[in-house]
Amino acid sequence: MPYNLWYWPGIQGRGEFVRLALEAAGIEYRDCARERGAEALMEDMASHSRRPPFAPPYLTLDGFAIAQVANILLYLGEHHDLAPSRLADRLWLHQLQLTIADMVAEVHNIHHPVAMGAYYEDQKPEAARAAEQFRAERMPKFLGHFEDAAKANPGEWLIDHRWTYADTSLFQLVEGLRYMFPRRMAAIEGDYPQLLKIHAQVKTLPGIAAYLASDRRLPFNTDGIFRHYPELDEA
Amino acid sequence: MPYNLWYWPGIQGRGEFVRLALEAAGIEYRDCARERGAEALMEDMASHSRRPPFAPPYLTLDGFAIAQVANILLYLGEHHDLAPSRLADRLWLHQLQLTIADMVAEVHNIHHPVAMGAYYEDQKPEAARAAEQFRAERMPKFLGHFEDAAKANPGEWLIDHRWTYADTSLFQLVEGLRYMFPRRMAAIEGDYPQLLKIHAQVKTLPGIAAYLASDRRLPFNTDGIFRHYPELDEA
């Protein structure tokens, strides 16, 4: 039985981190709100009254919903062998995923620094300040952390000798940052050769290559998490 | 052998979520940076070069470090029986903890909306806007979610009939919000009776009562995550 994935239609957003792991592993799923619309998503979300997701994305199976990207990936990792089996390794992988989630939250905060519920247009001066410190301080700090993590692993992936969900997530992080900050990324990404290597390796995994070539992969846009506003980018 | 907990001395911060679980369960730990200072923390953090924490808090055991609050609690939950054993229950609990982490990140964002590395004093107008939407929209949304979660459980805790790490974390959330937004919390907390009940129950757990009465429990202050700036509070 395929999984039901529920996420806002029309954007990659946080749902993409789940999609990439599913696609790379060849796990069957239905992208329910893409098929049935945002209203169906809101109805389905309200139906999980016993254990409600706070927000999409979530995956349903056997009548219950698993929400929070890192939690979904933790589950998929253990049940579809997309994660190592040693405890220390599993915790390390999850830790990296949680740090990716932290960076993604900071990325969202750039275009919505003071009012999550209002438009970017209503907080442009604040966003400009947020983008400046993100480009200067946070980007190198996060990317340097992931580079160090990858470098310390003797294998060619983040952990061990095969891809895991944190590798597909790093791929998406690089893709998103290149879309959002093309000038800044061009200026600094060379400092992170291991990250770029993992990005390139993920891109050619058969499941990912097929996905990226399909119409299931939506283009980035300015409704998602990673948004390209030229005024926020600078080398 | 006691665990080594490493976190910035002088504040409760994110470390407090780990401390509360350890104290409630009576698990021995050494609060290393309280004993040895911030410089020792930075040295220790740098020593984990193979698998570096991105930031404190982290727990060390058998030579490796576990970072990210929710990850640490996941580990403690499984290894010290502070979490249920059924898969669906464990995922639900972790999901709640991750949503608590999201709220804590938004709380931090209030006083540092545009420049995480700068002082609050350098971003006061932005912080005022961020606080306004947090009080009006985000607080009721998050607290309502946790209230619904607690209400849906037939037992007297968040899950089942005994406390887990998410209960001690909710306790800290209520404590922190009461310190940071006394007027706002006084105005709305009555809407969340189940949350307040869990808060009261955690407070009287023997391990927590002893901890709160000890000098190990630092007072809240304006260096931590929850900061009381009267100008940001309003009913």
Report on this model:
Chain A has ten helices and four strands. Chain A folds into two domains: about 5-80, 3-Layer(aba) Sandwich (Glutaredoxin); about 85-230, Glutathione S-transferase Yfyf (Class Pi), Chain A, domain 2. Chain A is α+β, with helices and mostly antiparallel strands and about 240 residues long. A four-stranded mixed β-sheet of chain A has the order 2-1-3-4. In chain A, helix 1 packs parallel to helix 4 (about 70-80) and helix 5 (about 85-110) runs parallel beside helix 7 (about 165-180). The interface between A and B is large, with 44 and 44 residues. Chains A, B: InterPro entries: Glutathione-S-Trfase_C-like, Glutathione-S-Trfase_C_sf, Glutathione_S-Trfase_N, GST_C, GST_superfamily, Thioredoxin-like_sf. Chains A, B: Keywords: Transferase. Chains A, B: One of its GO terms (molecular function) is glutathione transferase activity. Chains A, B: This is Glutathione S-transferase.
